[in-house]
Amino acid sequence: xxxxxxxxxxxxxxxxxxxxxxxxxxxxxxxxxxxxxxxxxxxxxxxxxxxxxxxxxxxxxxxxxxxxxxxxxxxxxxxxxxxxxxxxxxxxxxxxxxxxxxxxxxxxxxxxxxxxxxxxxxx
Length: 123
Known about the structure:
The protein is of the alpha+beta class. It is built from 4 helices and 4 strands. The protein is elongated, with a radius of gyration of 22 Å.
């Protein structure tokens, strides 16, 4: 199965062929139990998107939230006064339930520092 720049080059070289032929030529084919051929369209399109720099919800990839959406890095105060950070951000920092933070207030800013840590850590 071709990936990355090899996949992009092959797709470009093949030009205007059927989708089935394209998937087959790039190696995204497997053999069924009965000996028939199965074209793996999903794997092909995921590899194609990845080769073009689009990531599909792979966990642990910085800046990508649920469903592959890019994180906005903006939080909005809710109507009840709560400020919600969100699971995608805590996952990026590998935070676990029960992790504690000191709240440091400044002029129109809030800094969360791990309890017992220093606020001089790298970003």
